Amino acid sequence: MPDPTIATTILLGTFVVLLILKVPITFTLAIASIFTAMYMNVPLMAVTQRLVQGVRSFSLLAIPFFILAGEIMGQGGISRRLILFSNVMIGRVRGGLAQVNVLASMFFGGISGSAVADVSSIGTIMIPMMKKKGYDADYCVAVTVSSACQGIIIPPSHNMIIYSLAAGGVSIGRLFLGGIVPGILLGIALMVISYILAIKRSYPKEQTYTVREAVKITRDAILGLLTAVIIIGGVISGVFTATESAAIACIYAFIITFFVYREIPLRRFLDILYSSLKTLAMVMSLIAAASAFGWFLALLRIPALATELLLTISHNPVVLLLLINLMLIFLGMIMDMAPLILITTPILFPVVVNVLGMHPVQFGIMLMLNLGIGLCTPPVGSALFVGCSVGKISIEKATKAMLPFYVTMIVVLLLVTFVPQLSMYIPKALMG
User: Fold this and answer.
1) What confidence tens digit (pLDDT) does each residue in 23-65 have?
2) What residues contact residue 223 under an 8 Å CB cut-off, 6+ apart?
3) Concatenated DSSP letters for 249-262?
4) How far lies 286's CA from each of 46, 162, 295, 303, in Å?
5) pTM summary value
6) How far apart are CA 234 and CA 248, in angstroms?
7) pLDDT, tens digit, for every residue of 83-116?
8) What is the DSSP-derived secondary structure letter of residue 59?
9) Between 208 and 321, where is the model more confident?
10) Which of 99, 108, 111 lies closest to 80 in space, CA to CA?
11) What residue spans of 21-61 are helical by DSSP H?
């Protein structure tokens, strides 16, 4: 009879060792599952079935459509239009380009749902523009990277679909709605800290626009922003499922990009498909491997053991939530977002939802924000690396400039954690 303690050691030990050896996370999860199956005399065909079962979900069909729609709009000129639109709205204040950066990221997050895509699209335009106007390079990168976190929370977000799957079918519509207020709150908080720093460093204001210019810029930007409206409106109204809304958004994005904006030729669509396919292959293979890994977590009762361990530390909900946030931020510093959602959700969900009584939607937003902060932190924060590459500065210099933004994001995280109404008011008001 296999010993559960040894099986748990093999599963988690193999995972940690391979992670330290920098083996790709998909192979790490799969190999750890296979080694554990061999010890427990579980047929490898059962592991294969779990791999297949992990991606046999209608809801997951929304992910390729979200990725494709974001890729089309990202390469089709929407980022430049959103920057101009944001400049019309808020560029006249002190340090206006920083405010434009945050606001443009907020809008772009509602289209791409990806922090890295946000930094790549908005950052390649905003960082050189800000540096040309006299902004410090480290400040430019810090604003761009921190504001990209909004893309994780503001709907639509394919990471929320991954969480919905890992949490056993939490409503995607409610998750989308739950991210609106926290996402906007994060944007406002980042604008405030950017404004304070801009005053201290005497950064310039931006130009004003005539009414005719403002109307034209607004009209162009709104055409792109309607992509997010189609997705969110279709889901919460019940007219479409998340998958159907994403598919319709793809068609709309295709028409707007190639027949209205017309900044790129139609032949570029093959490059967009190729780029989307690469991203999709990584995401779906990761979900499949995490499904097998999660099956062994459940089989070995690791979530229950984690619950018992946390409750031995304290029964105080505030202390437990602070510990969980601290753990998630630390994990976000050393692992990427999607695998962490798939690994930590089955373990922490019973503690946070069943024991502490937090609503699954609120926990999902809390988890997204935690791991979004992880994307901005060294040593493996992918958004931070992209921002440093675009801004041509070192990780150390960017991290130092990020410190006031880290504090701001953590304050918003604590508000999301301890004020349920921030995440739950809109879902309850619109969906009951």
Assistant:
1) 888 899 999 999 999 999 999 898 888 888 888 877 778 888 8
2) 256, 260, 261
3) HHHHHHHIIIIII-
4) 18, 11, 14, 20
5) 0.85
6) 9
7) 888 888 887 888 888 898 898 888 877 666 677 7
8) G
9) 321
10) 108
11) 25-39, 44-54
